[in-house]
Amino acid sequence: MSNLNLHLISFDICPYVQRAMILLLEKNAEFQISYVDLANKPEWFLKVSPLGKVPVLQVDQTVLFESSVICEYIDETHGEVMHPSDPLVKAEHRAWMEYSSVLLGLIYGVSTAQDEDDLAAKRNDLSQKLSNLELTLKKGNGPFFGGSKFAMIDAFYAPVFRYFQAFAQWGDSSYLSEFPRLQSWEANVMRRSSVLKAVPQDYSEKLKNFLKNKNSVYARKLNLT
Ligand SMILES: N[C@@H](CCC(=O)N[C@@H](CS)C(=O)NCC(=O)O)C(=O)O
Fold first, then answer.
1. How far is 43 from 87, CA to CA, in rounded Å?
2. CB 54 near ligand 1, within 6 Å
3. Closest CA to 9 of 20, 72, 160, 1
4. I need a labelling partner for 124 at 20 to 30 A (CA). Which of 6, 42, 81, 206 fits?
5. Of all residues in the chain, what percent carry a pLDDT higher than 70?
């Protein structure tokens, strides 16, 4: 266990921050957390974050950015390793972890599309990509992506599933309706304690306000406006 001080810089509904939060909670790591308003970035944050983005993890005086890098660092320095030991299986997990970032980009695209055509194209693409993911999930191999152990890849998919849960709460539960393996994986990931604690209690209200302000076609369809 590392003795260095960890300081996570967060924005309360950021999906990439959730990855780091889940790792820190899984590892029972001690850390401080600060929240910034990304619509009004404070000077101190702009000095610390090279890309002006969250998450940032300050490790004593060293600044780490990019959620994947932050998560790998936390994994290597705290507690039990959250990757499979076999190099090929680990590489496969990392490949599908990258894939989760593509899904997050598409979900953002769906929720902020400004016209019907763009919305339909993004939804189609997302659906196709979820179908690829469904096919890679091995039958009867749950509860998690790689089997019985909650691994880093499961932490990476939690923010994806959290969006689907929020959309379902607002009336659209279509995303995983044709994908039974994904549904089961989602349920198992989303009941994990670290995942439940990785966002503020008013997450859903905050996400709703964020989407409302985007005034997108999808926000109107969900009656968020
Ligand atoms: N690839 C980055 C993405 C981080 C990212 O896009 N964060 C968003 C918030 S969810 C951000 O800070 N946006 C502020 C901006 O782009 O100005 C990672 O994985 O950490």
1. 42
2. yes
3. 20
4. 206
5. 99
pLDDT in tens, 171-200: 999 999 999 999 999 999 999 999 999 999
Average pLDDT of the residues of the chain:
96
Which ligand 1 atom is at minimum distance from the Cα of 49?
A: 12
Counting from 1 in the atom list of ligand 1, the atom nearest the Cα of 54 is: 12
Domains parsed from the chain with CATH numbers: 6-77 (3.40.30.10), 87-221 (1.20.1050.10)
11 lines ligand 1 (CB under 6 A): yes
Q: Is 0.70 topped by the overall pTM? A: yes
Give nearest CA residue, ligand 1 atom 14: 53
- Which pLDDT value is given to residue 1? 59
C-alpha triplet 15, 187, 143: angle, nearest 5°: 105
- Taking the CA of residue 19 as reference, the ligand 1 atom at the shortest distance is 19
How far does residue 53's CA lie from ligand 1's centre (Å)?
5
Going from the Cα of 114 to the center of ligand 1, the distance in angstroms, rounded, reads: 21
